[in-house]
């Protein structure tokens, strides 16, 4: 049984590795699509200046993109800060989230999208920082008739242990997310680096098709796009994002994301369930059966993890050393259990 689990685990990892060696090749022209960037902001007065600065510096003709920021009833100075920063920038617009049709973040995004003037929409978070060619990379994807597109989100490094745990978790999840997309089985996306054809979004019924969860404005849109056989792809450009700095906040965030996975398509739930179960069985095999011989299986699992992550982490702008990969992977596997049970009991909230 355990040897079979190791063989299946190895096959999964080989599929992941070779799928991520596949690079996006887009047919491109010099044409520029008009693109709308929509941001929902709630109590982000300290973070949003960095985002606005990054958007002002985009390598894209300012006549071909607009930015719509929706202040979702912030209790800090978010509205005032944004208002000051976008003065004299005619392609930036600021709205207040009034009479939301949907709860939480997706309600604010829905208001922003309803005010867009262009055919293509990009979504990012108020505490994020896109690369300078972010919009341009999506333009190439939209020229190739993609309905929904997403890119990489990189967690910025900070001097605390929870940040390191969060960054490793982001690396691990990103490898799965992008491998699945390359294998034509997309199940998830990052809401801070996300784009779509507005017509495709409306054909799905907008966020009304994702209203079974308070969160999940990105993952559940991918779910609906898969159900409707839409064209889903990825872009290479990155968005930098901060991570939670306390264990409580980190678990809260991860349990919210994990709760969304309960609403994935059954096929995706089964694949993810098998993957995580394999990891847990191989890691805890010696403890489960109290057989000393099974230690070799756990060591083999750790070595496979080590090889895969050391080869792929640079593609996601990370640089964990061997020791960090080993203990972070063990923590990651344990946190899968913690986050799963936390997702069952924790009530969802939007800040």
In short:
The protein is α/β, with parallel strands linked by helices and 351 residues long. It contains 12 helices and 8 strands. The chain has an 8-stranded mixed β-sheet with strand order 3-2-1-4-7-6-8-5, sandwiched between helices.
Description:
- Helix 1 packs across helix 10.
- The chain has 12 helices and 8 strands.
- An 8-stranded mixed sheet has the order 3-2-1-4-7-6-8-5, sandwiched between helices.
- 50% of the residues lie in helices and 14% in strands.
> Can you count the beta strands?
8
What is the alpha-carbon Rg in Å? 21 Å
Task: Write out the CATH superfamily name of one domain.
Answer: Spore Coat Polysaccharide Biosynthesis Protein SpsA, Chain A
Low-confidence stretches: none
Assembly type: single chain
State the CATH topology of one domain.
Spore Coat Polysaccharide Biosynthesis Protein SpsA, Chain A
Layout: helices, strands, pairs:
Layout: H1 2-19, E1 35-41, H2 48-56, E2 65-71, H3 78-85, E3 92-96, H4 104-114, E4 120-125, E5 128-130, H5 134-143, E6 148-155, H6 161-182, E7 194-197, H7 198-203, H8 219-227, E8 232-241, H9 247-261, H10 266-289, H11 295-312, H12 322-345
Parallel strand pairs: 1-2, 1-4, 2-3, 6-8
Antiparallel strand pairs: 4-7, 5-8, 6-7
Helix pairs in contact: 1-6, 1-10, 1-11, 6-12, 9-12, 10-11, 10-12, 11-12
What labels describe this entry?
Spore Coat Polysaccharide Biosynthesis Protein SpsA, Chain A; 351 residues; 12 helices; alpha/beta; 8-stranded mixed sheet; 8 strands; globular
């Amino acid at each position: 049984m355990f040897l079979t689990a190791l063989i299946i685990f190895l096959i999964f990892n080989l599929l992941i590795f070779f799928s991520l060696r596949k690079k996006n090749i887009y047919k491109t022209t010099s044409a520029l699509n008009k693109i709308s960037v929509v941001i929902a902001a709630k109590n982000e007065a300290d973070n949003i200046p960095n985002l606005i600065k990054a958007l002002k510096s985009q390598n894209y003709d300012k006549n071909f993109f607009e930015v719509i920021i929706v202040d979702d009833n912030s209790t800090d100075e978010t509205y005032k800060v944004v208002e000051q920063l976008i003065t004299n920038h005619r392609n930036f617009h600021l709205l207040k989230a009034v009479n939301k049709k949907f709860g939480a973040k997706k309600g604010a995004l829905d208001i922003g999208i309803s005010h867009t003037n262009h055919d293509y929409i990009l979504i990012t978070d108020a505490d994020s920082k896109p690369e300078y060619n972010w919009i341009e990379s999506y333009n190439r994807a939209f020229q190739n008739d993609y309905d929904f597109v997403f890119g990489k989100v990189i967690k910025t490094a900070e001097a605390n242990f929870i940040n390191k745990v969060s960054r490793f978790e982001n690396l691990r999840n990103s490898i799965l997310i992008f491998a699945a997309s390359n294998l034509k089985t997309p199940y998830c996306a990052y809401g801070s680096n996300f784009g779509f054809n507005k017509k495709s979004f409306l054909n799905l019924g907008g966020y009304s098709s994702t209203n079974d969860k308070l969160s999940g404005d990105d993952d559940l849109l991918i779910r609906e796009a898969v159900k409707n056989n839409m064209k889903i792809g990825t872009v290479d450009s990155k968005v930098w994002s901060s991570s939670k700095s306390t264990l409580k906040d980190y678990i809260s965030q991860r349990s919210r994301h994990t709760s969304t996975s309960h609403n994935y398509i059954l096929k995706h739930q089964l694949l993810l369930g098998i993957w995580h179960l394999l990891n847990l069985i191989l890691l805890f095999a010696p403890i489960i059966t109290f057989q000393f011989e099974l230690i070799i299986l756990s060591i083999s699992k750790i070595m496979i993890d080590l090889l895969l992550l050391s080869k792929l982490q640079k593609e996601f702008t990370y640089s964990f050393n061997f020791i960090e990969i080993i203990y972070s992977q063990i923590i990651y596997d344990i946190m899968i259990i913690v986050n799963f049970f936390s997702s069952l009991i924790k009530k969802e909230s939007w800040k």
